[in-house]
Amino acid sequence: MVAPYLLQKMGIKFARSVLDRNLDPEQRLWRAVVVNAFDETLINQSDRKSSLIKINAHNWIVEADDNFRLACEWGTLDPEDMNQCYIRALKKRSIYFTKRQIAWKEYDKIYKRMISEDNKFVRKVKRKEVDAFRKYVKNIPDMVISTVFVSAFS
Length: 154
Hints:
Elements: H1 4-10, H2 12-18, H3 25-40, H4 48-63, H5 66-74, H6 79-91, H7 99-116, H8 120-139
């Protein structure tokens, strides 16, 4: 089952690709994995968890690595077509990112560096940086960025 709003945002080519009903259960499962990633890119909330889910799904689709390609192929979807449908939706601004969503990704990188630090003194210093950045992110206006991101967020 694919949500109508997802089909509308992704376009007719995407809809034709994912709506094939003559699939075995394993193919339907892998197709659902791919469709779920596309659906996650439409998240509008800008809390930390939602933002990271959205950006990770975006990165997975845009990078089109072996995992993405295999999931598409196991779901009998063409990975290049799926990738192009997504990029087309980005360019049409059907999918967008807010400043706060992108800032949460940066926060996550800083947080992971702090967690991986073994030295307790250095970790304490980094904790203050993390706390300050978290306050900064929470105060960022939740406005849409007009730039189209057709590459992965690092």
